[in-house]
Amino acid sequence: LGLTTNLSVMPHPRTAAEYTAQGCALHMQGLTMDGITGRVSGSVVMDEPATLACTVKAQDAAKGLSSSSTLTLEFVHFAYPEDPIVAVPGKSWKPQMKGGYSSFAVQCTPTLPWLKIDA
Known about the structure:
Number of helices: 0
Mean pLDDT: 76
Number of strands: 6
Helix content: under 10%
Oligomer: single chain
Order of helices and strands: EEEEEE
Strand content: 35-45%
Structural class: mainly beta
Distance between the termini: 29 Å
Radius of gyration: 22 Å
Low-confidence stretches: none
Strand order of the largest sheet: 1-4-3
């Protein structure tokens, strides 16, 4: 399964006359940057969670102004293909088996910053 995200982000406030992305390949991820507005948009499809970071240079050549900032986009799995298990503090949960299961395992992504798993 791939991660699919429709994306549209832009600088705020938009004060420059021209924007360029440096140090990343936005087009390799299905994204484009509008050089006049600075808007990054597109449909990202990835097989695994990933972070995309690049330097965005904003400039106004007529006024002799230039500035750079880092654009960081993080793509993570976040979906419930089945009914989710809701954990309630102070209450234990024991799976109930129906049918002919010979083994049972619960899998999750323990690298999510908001998820805490007590062993």
